[in-house]
Amino acid sequence: MKSITIKGSERENVGKKATKAVRDAGMVPCVIYGGNQPVHFIADERAFKGLVYTPNAHTVVVELNGGSYNVIMQDIQFHPVNDRILHIDFFQLSDDKEIVMEVPVKVTGTSPGVLLGGVLRLNQRRLKVKALPKDLPDFIEANISKLEMGNKLYVTQLESKDYKFMHVDNTVVCQVRISRAAMKAAQEAAKAEKGGAAKKKK
């Protein structure tokens, strides 16, 4: 999985007044869990643009004056009115410990059902996987080349090499639904066929 780097500074004062001053200065208060003790730090709000406002998934290298930390974003809080980032929680990674992370789904191939007028519906835009940090994929490939009209692609049909899906087996990743136009055309064809058969009987 691709990684991005965020540079910040460790915090000593984590009180409410200090936190307000940090936000007023355009900085985001953050904390890293998973190590021996939590690490509090701040970073420029603009530094999180490539992490938060993207459909992609990343691991993160947080560089502080006290060293660097390999982490993933665990939780984020936004302001209810202006959507500014209020706080971010990170979790520190260990090379020998599996973690659970949401990874985006990438649709590949061409569905015969879609070519016939069906509509592709992506039920799961992200899937939870469990793996060692080095085995986390950038995306999950959902090949729809075998989906006929009305077919569904289940999570059990997806390839998973070095990671495990954290979903029940009947989870539908995507499906090809019959469009209204295709349904109407099928009904008209059936009606015409029925009318032709009635004429033949006469």
- The residue fraction in helices comes out at 10-25%
The rounded Rg comes to 25 Å
CATH topology of the largest domain: Ribosomal Protein L25, Chain P
CATH architectural group of the largest domain: Beta Barrel
The ordered H/E elements are EEHEEHEEEEHEEEEEEH
The largest β sheet comes out as: 7 strands, mixed
β-strand percent reads 35-45%
- Ranges where pLDDT stays below 50 over 5 or more residues in a row are none
Shape: elongated
- Structural class of the helices, strands and pairings? alpha+beta
Strand order of the largest sheet: 1-5-6-7-3-4-2
Return the average pLDDT rounded to an integer: 89
State the total count of DSSP E strands: 14
CATH C-level of the largest domain: Mainly Beta
How many distinct helices? 4
Structure report:
By secondary structure, the protein is an alpha+beta fold. The chain folds into two domains: 3-93, Beta Barrel (Ribosomal Protein L25, Chain P), CATH 2.40.240.10; 100-185, RNA Polymerase Alpha Subunit, Chain A, domain 2 (Beta Complex), CATH 2.170.120. Helices cover 19% and strands 40% of the residues. The chain is built from four helices and 14 strands. It has helices at residues 16-24, 49-52, 112-115, 180-201, and strands at residues 3-7, 9-10, 27-33, 39-44, 59-64, 67-78, 85-92, 99-108, 119-122, 126-131, 140-143, 152-154, 164-165, 172-177. The chain has a seven-stranded mixed β-sheet with strand order 1-5-6-7-3-4-2, with helices on one face. A four-stranded mixed β-sheet has the order 11-8-10-13, with no helix packed on it. A hairpin with a 2-residue loop joins β5 and β6. It is elongated. The model has no long low-confidence stretch (mean pLDDT 89).
